[in-house]
Amino acid sequence: MKYIVLGLGHFGRSLAVQLTEMGHEVIGVDVNLTLVEQLKDRVTHTICMDTTDRESVRSLPLKDCDAVIVAIGEDGGASLLTTALLKQLHVKRIIGRIISDLQKTVLEAMDIAEYVMPEEETAHRLAMRLDNMDIVDSFKVSDKYSIIETKVPPKYVGRSLQEANLTNQFKVIVLTTLRDQEMMEDGRLTIKREASGIAKSSTVLQADDLLVLFGEMSDIMRLIRKGE
What we know:
By secondary structure, the protein is an alpha/beta fold. It has 2 domains: about 1-130, NAD(P)-binding Rossmann-like Domain (Rossmann fold, 3-Layer(aba) Sandwich), CATH 3.40.50; about 135-225, 2-Layer Sandwich (Alpha-Beta Plaits). The chain contains 9 helices and 11 strands. The longest helix has 13 residues, at about 75-90. It is globular and about 55 Å long.
């Protein structure tokens, strides 16, 4: 897959490098030539560019990429201007970065549904999510083990956990399942994702459920691939 990362500070650099190491084509962009030069051998392509300049941004292969991630952090104004510009250019998937509640409010006003916070762990989690569209979220417990939130593979929809036998087949543990629930808040109907409690052998997997899995990443990926 192809991604464009705009802003190569701590967060953007970590994300661009991880996605490249996962085998994706990544274009890393920053206005700082020093940062661009530092990453030229670790990221597929690097470009020195002002991302608030419309003509410069239009020169990027926006239509060919799977997502554009705005990773600019220190300059909040440049981050918002860049995001607005991408929206005007009809980029199909924009992932913004927020460093304040105000910035979050502005992104939501621009109808940017995806955004991340600037911790390095978030860069890892976002890289995992972009690497596999079935992974919704992830948390690295140790060098060996991870907790992954993923869609129920189609093969197991309608089966109980006992019937699916995921632990014996793939050496992973199902911690719980998540399901969207309608709730009333301040007189308004909202949808919140709720855990169903500790998973039991009798738990039946539904199409819209999410699985929370614990195990080695290679085993979890094997489950996802074989369940398609």
